[in-house]
Design brief:
107 residues; alpha+beta; Arc Repressor Mutant, subunit A
Length: 107
């Protein structure tokens, strides 16, 4: 087992999930959000649902969201400033559930 660097508070970080397990953990929250028809950013869903960070945050969040687009669950509907701490108000995509997702025809 590789050595782990303690966090600043002295605790060890939670072991990161492999990509597939991480997707299985977070997907239900995004499906619920898509079914509402409300506009959202991926960070808002992650924060509201206390979702875990992936092993590779810079790539995995984008890959996951794009898989939802490819499967017809969400669609891009605009831009906003990120509310993610340290994001320096950079632009982020805003999403909403497709009509199929809103009527429960996607999973």
């Amino acid at each position: 087992m590789p050595a782990q660097q303690p966090q600043l508070d002295g605790t060890l970080p939670e072991p990161s999930l492999d990509y597939r397990s991480w997707v299985d953990t977070i997907r239900p929250a995004f499906i619920r959000a898509a079914r509402t028809g409300q506009w959202f950013t991926s960070y808002e869903i992650a924060k509201t649902n206390d979702l875990p960070e992936p092993a590779n945050p810079k790539a995995d969040w984008g890959n996951f969201v794009q898989s939802l687009v490819r499967h017809g669950v969400i669609e891009h509907c605009g831009w906003d400033e990120t509310s993610r701490p340290g994001g320096e108000h950079s632009g982020v995509k805003v999403w909403r559930g497709t009509r199929a997702a809103q009527t429960g025809r996607t999973a």
